[in-house]
Amino acid sequence: MVGMPPIATSATLPKTARRRTAPPAWLVMLLVCSGQFLVILDVSVVNVALPAMRTGLGLSELGLQWIVNAYVITFAGFMLLGGRAADLFGRKRIFVLGLALFTVASLGGGLAQEPWQLIAARTVQGIGAAVLSPATLTILTTSFPAGPARTRAIATWTAVGAGGGAVGGLVGGTLTEFLSWRWVLLINVPIGALVLGGAVLWLTESRQGAGRRLDVPGALLVTAGLGLVAYGIVQTETDGWGSLSALLPLAAGLVVVAVFLVVEARAKAPLMPLGLFRLRSVSSANGAMVLSGAAMFSMWYFLSLYVQNVLGYRPLEAGLSFIPHSLSIVLGSKIAPRLMNRLGAKPLAIAGAVISASGMVWQGTMDVDGSYLGTILGPGILMALGAGLTATPIASIATSGADPADQGLVSGLINTSRQMGGALGLSVLSTIAAARIEAGHGPKALADGYGLAFQVGSMVLLGSILLMVVALPQRRADTAHG
């Protein structure tokens, strides 16, 4: 695959930007990975703080879950729009816009006085993250030439994102215990402002596909459809699968998703060109990512609840307990490029998923008498290491077959698949866990419910493994194209 020219030499740059010297590769990497770290951190940083948020704002069980889902659903639903916007209007411009929106929303969430204000702020945060995240990957894929350099860049980006998700528990626990739950959001403000200033000063502009339009109706439809489906699944937790309060939003969500597909098939400038899915690399990698995300995303959520609600850990203790998990997922992401060169992308993705699934099966044996060494450490390391090994080859396969003009879109699509799978997976697994918890009493019921969530998650991950074996292209993603 022939790489795009460096950002600073693009013909679409403004005159002032063309006169600048291209920023060093390490600075581009630092800025975009900092942005990615923030948006992924906020997927998990609230998990440890959820009990304190509930107490502070009087949140219901449904409201508590929507603190997580409001962010994840809008993140997933608008990410395709963010990826296309980066291609059309400029990667730097969209990076700056998304980071600014994310930072302002973080301030609003940290100052919230009512549950609806916090949920609204998390929703806007998700939109900002959706605009920002695909721009980070696109800047990397268009700044580094195809081959080992790009693979290492993607691996670093993946490791930083994985690290953001992994250290969220530690960051959230530390801030909640020593300051307040509000600081899990307010901490984004000074960091976001610093990265924003660096991006404005040092990143240079590039774009592809001038003259195309944004498919805003498509973005609204896919977000509404995903939100309705997730809401319907959440309603089954309290009202059951046969209730109208669950079936109506589920049915409406599926109808809206179907309308979205019809609109995309007929639109002149679709948000998600369905023709992209004729590329085996795109369709198979995104399918695998949806299932992997559904299984792996909720790992931190249930572990945080288990160690606090069953084992009695304080927020800081809960965060500290996840440090080995954090190191494992970063390690897996960083060694993935070298293993890809030896094994190929497909075998590595499968091996990583198998490792993660074995950890989930082990974690599913948790009980009320669990200990850190016997119940948390071993399975957590396996789950995290496998997640790190899997993400890089899947992302590389997905982007390897795309045209340069569609890099932002495909980058947004693979992230959308991860987050969409995560949002729906969290809703389904939470409902399954809640049903088991309601059938019992006390900490034992909680442990049984959380364990069941991991057991079902391992089966979902098995489905992802089977899809990878059957459908992923048999090639090295860092050298292939088409």
UniProtKB/TrEMBL annotation:
It holds the Pfam family MFS_1. This is Putative drug efflux pump. Its main location: membrane. The lineage of its organism: Bacteria, Bacillati, Actinomycetota, Actinomycetes, Kitasatosporales. PANTHER family: BLR6921 PROTEIN (PTHR42718:SF46), MAJOR FACILITATOR SUPERFAMILY MULTIDRUG TRANSPORTER MFSC (PTHR42718). GO terms for cellular component: plasma membrane. Keywords: Antibiotic resistance, Cell membrane, Membrane, Transmembrane, Transmembrane helix, Transport. It is a multi-pass membrane protein. Residues 28-476 form the Major facilitator superfamily (MFS) profile domain. The chain crosses the membrane at residues 25-50, 62-82, 94-112, 124-142, 154-175, 181-204, 216-234, 240-263, 284-306, 348-364, 376-399, 449-472. GO terms for biological process: response to antibiotic. SUPFAM superfamilies: MFS general substrate transporter. GO terms for molecular function: transmembrane transporter activity. It is found in: Cell membrane.
